[in-house]
Amino acid sequence: MVNCLDSDKEALMDFKTGLHDPENRLSSWKGSNCCQWQGISCNNTTGAVIAVDLHNPHGSSSRHDFWSLSGEIRPSLTKLKSLRHLDLSFSTFNDNLIPEFFGYLKDLQYLNLSNAGFSGAIPPNLGNLSSLQYLDIESLDLLVHNLEWDTKQTPILN
């Protein structure tokens, strides 16, 4: 098994410090090989983190809200230079804005923030994600000022 990059492990540990994890879903996030951590996938050759999938496995069921992550999404995610897949759906980032730095995840192909409690305006720099193939930002509390960038660069918009 390939070992993860030290820089990616440090970025993930910093990212974790901003999260509130009431059900200890991230309890596996220890040890030297972040490729073995729950919700993390790595490139089998380089060990670079390519996916962070921390969606609530129970969806929107109120009986399982305790599975939802909340807190602050830290910009250390931008240090994951090979990140292609990010899923934080059905979390409870209540009233937080979608972080503008998501627009700097230049290799991102999949972004799912649906029903994650985000509110406010969708950052226009998400249009910088020229590799994006899937975007799900379904929410009742998001504002759209201009989605022209979506139709030009993002072939799949949910």
Can you characterise this structure?
The protein is α/β, with parallel strands linked by helices and 158 residues long. The chain has one domain: Leucine-rich repeat, LRR (right-handed beta-alpha superhelix), CATH 3.80.10. Helices cover 11% and strands 16% of the residues. The protein has helices at residues 6-17, 148-153, and strands at residues 19-20, 40-42, 49-53, 70-71, 85-87, 110-112, 120-121, 134-136, 142-143. The strands form three sheets. A five-stranded mixed sheet has the order 2-3-5-6-8, with no helix packed on it. A two-stranded antiparallel ribbon has the order 1-4. The chain has a two-stranded parallel ribbon with strand order 7-9. Residues 61-67 and 151-158 have low confidence and may be disordered.
Per CATH, the superfamily is Ribonuclease Inhibitor
**What name does CATH use for the topology?**
Leucine-rich repeat, LRR (right-handed beta-alpha superhelix)
Morphology:
globular
Q: Helix- and strand-based class?
A: alpha/beta
- Compute the number of strand runs: 9
Compute the number of structural domains.
Answer: 1
Instruction: Give the oligomeric state of the chains in this entry, treating copies of one chain as homo and distinct chains as hetero.
Output: single chain
Query: Can you give the mean pLDDT?
Result: 85
Q: Which architecture does the CATH hierarchy give at level 2?
A: Alpha-Beta Horseshoe
Amino-to-carboxy terminus distance = 35 Å
Poorly predicted spans: 61-67, 151-158
Determine and state the CATH class: Alpha Beta
Element string (H = helix, E = strand): HEEEEEEEEEH
Report the sheet-strand fraction: 15-25%
Q: Helix content range of the residues, please?
A: 10-25%
Q: Strand count, sense and closure of the main sheet?
A: 5 strands, mixed
Strand order of the largest sheet: 2-3-5-6-8
- Count of alpha and pi helical runs: 2
**If you compute it from the alpha carbons, what radius of gyration comes out, rounded to the nearest whole angstrom?**
15 Å
InterPro entries: Leu-rich_rpt (IPR001611), LRR_dom_sf (IPR032675), LRR_N_plant-typ (IPR013210), RLP23-like (IPR046956)
Subcellular location: Membrane
Pfam families: LRR_1, LRRNT_2
Organism: Ziziphus jujuba var. spinosa
